[in-house]
Write a structure and sequence with these properties.
This protein is mostly helical and 198 residues long. The chain contains nine helices and two strands. The protein has helices at residues 12-28, 46-58, 60-64, 69-72, 85-100, 119-141, 149-159, 163-167, 186-193; strands at 109-112, 115-118. Strands 1-2 form a two-stranded antiparallel sheet. 32% of the residues are buried.
């Protein structure tokens, strides 16, 4: 996706930053005894899922100042959650927002393990990742799973054109969730594309 040409439309970087904020309440809602709970991501328990979200977040600043995987090295290996998950998340989000606010961030190329990726595309994939994992955290911990309506609409606009590819992708649990009824709400339909059943 190329950066939005309409100045009133948020960039994918701005959407990602808002999704980071939206997911914060789900991190804050995790109770001390819930860290080993299973999640909608079959391969991860709650601690592992939050660790995945944290790992993706802490990389952002380095990626958006042009660092390569080799330059970053093992800087973020190990436990990123520590004893205060919310404080660790807040610090990671602050760092990510510094990266996203770099001049020309959406037009630059980030050097990722899968190759060089346009900043706007990287931000779009991270928007999807952190937003949907917020739902996963809420679902796993019994929190209200209602997502930010404006962000649901924005992610639907980015995701629906890729529906067939995403629904057949192992990354989103290919074939795992049946197509919801046509009258289902937008969040339910978005979740289905991303391999989740509301």
């Amino acid at each position: 996706m190329t950066p939005a040409t309409d100045p009133s439309s948020p960039t994918t970087g701005e959407l990602y930053a808002r999704a980071l904020d939206a997911t914060r309440r789900f991190i804050a809602g995790i109770a001390p005894g819930q860290w080993e709970l299973p999640t909608p991501c079959d391969e991860w328990n709650l601690r592992e899922l939050v660790g995945h979200v944290m790992y993706g977040t802490v990389w952002i600043e380095d990626a958006f100042v042009g660092k390569t995987m080799e330059e970053v090295g093992d800087k973020y290996d190990g436990d990123l959650i520590g004893g205060d998950a919310l404080a660790a998340y807040d610090a990671a989000v602050a760092s990510a927002k510094r990266g996203l606010s770099q001049p020309g961030a959406m037009e630059m190329y980030c050097h990722l393990s899968r190759g060089d990726v346009l900043g706007s595309d990287y931000a779009r994939s991270m928007f999807t990742d952190v937003f949907i994992h917020g739902w996963d955290i809420a679902k796993a911990t019994g929190q209200d799973t209602g997502l930010d309506t404006e962000l649901v609409v924005a992610l639907w606009a980015l995701t629906e054109p890729r529906r067939e590819r995403m629904m057949s992708s192992p990354a989103f649990g290919a074939g795992k969730v049946p197509e919801p009824p046509a009258l289902a709400d937008l969040q339910t339909r978005l979740l289905a594309i991303l391999g989740r059943e509301a």
